[in-house]
Amino acid sequence: MLNSLLASLKIGYWEVEYMNFSELNLSENILNAIKNKGFEKPTDIQMKVIPLFLNDKCNIVAQARTGSGKTASFAIPLIELVNEDTLGAIILTPTRELAIQVADEIESLKGSKNLKIAKIYGGKAIYPQIKALKTANIVVGTPGRILDHINRGTLNLKNVKYFILDEADEMLNMGFVEDVEKILNACNRDKRILLFSATMPKEILNLAKKYMGDYSFIKAKINANIEQSYVEINENERFEALCKLLKNKDFYGLVFCKTKRDTKELANMLRDIGLKAGAIHGDLSQPQREKVIRLFKQKRIKILIATDVMSRGIDVNDLNCVINYHLPQNPESYMHRIGRTGRAGKKGKAISLINRREYKKLKHIERTMKVKIRRLKF
């Protein structure tokens, strides 16, 4: 039933391939900004979303994995469509880090257009945000803090024309759906809604049906640039196996753990043997998180230990490897994790460390994602 529903929503011209951004009917300002960022040609999701967003009035549900270029797929049309004299768009993200990344991406693409982008999330003083909201054209934030401003009367969404819900499946997993619905209800009825999600559980489709009515469905092609493998270990060999993988001096990537305690302990163990490793977890303050991510982007730290939630918003195109020190709980989390590598047309590796009891879980991921994860032997 689900497949038939999705199939019925496809339209023909999504399969048209645009060889470069100049074919997408974009302004000279945007084209110059795209060129300055080094983008050579649109990704699959950008080819499908940008013309539909710009040239149609429909709502859009897009299935696209992390690293597919989805942020630019909605950022570019928003820059073209939003006026400089009003609040025209709101973008909801599940985490602070992703809100920062999305806002920074819009800033880097707006060129000479005088759009004001407000970053609204917890962990920061609220009064500077109130000031920013008075002149904002695009608001990017997390549901909790956005709702706080609505309740305070410092954010009015009645004139918003575009509502973007990014990583909707993560919103669902983190229990934000009720807040999202409250924010949707605070907007005017004539807004256009764009929903982006790596996976499409029925709860997300039900949300789309409830608030979007008829919508166009888009599905991005799977990234074939990621080589997926696993290493079978005994539990007491986990750290030793990781160290062997990290011996490669060119390693630049993420190592995923199950809990924030694991991230802290593992980072300390790696530093004890002389490796430059950082950890990002829920016990860090917002300035501390931002500092760790900045050092990682500058490659002063080349190994970053993270949990699923804390990795949101780590937007680095040249990561060459993702290691699952602990296998994630579900295929959706696995998909988000490995999408951190193999970006911008580059090759990447995703390696999972598993014990024998986790083999069934790995096979479930293979079946769900319709991929082959090969065994890697040292």
Describe what this molecule looks like in 3D.
The chain has helices at about 1-5, 30-35, 45-55, 70-80, 95-110, 125-135, 145-150, 170-175, 175-185, 200-210, 240-245, 260-270, 285-295, 330-340, 360-370, and strands at about 60-65, 90, 115-120, 140, 160-165, 190-195, 215-220, 225-230, 255, 275-280, 305, 320-325, 350-355, 375. With about 375 residues, it is an alpha/beta fold. The protein has two domains: about 1-220, P-loop containing nucleotide triphosphate hydrolases (Rossmann fold, 3-Layer(aba) Sandwich); about 225-375, P-loop containing nucleotide triphosphate hydrolases (Rossmann fold, 3-Layer(aba) Sandwich). Strands 3-4-2-5-6-1-7 form a seven-stranded parallel sheet, with helices on both faces. It has a seven-stranded parallel sheet with strand order 10-11-9-12-13-8-14, sandwiched between helices. Helix 13 (about 285-295) links the parallel strand 10 and strand 11 (about 305). Helix 3 runs parallel beside helix 4 (about 70-80) and helix 4 packs across helix 5. The longest helix has 14 residues, at about 95-110. The chain is globular, with a radius of gyration of 21 Å. The N and C termini lie far apart (about 45 Å).
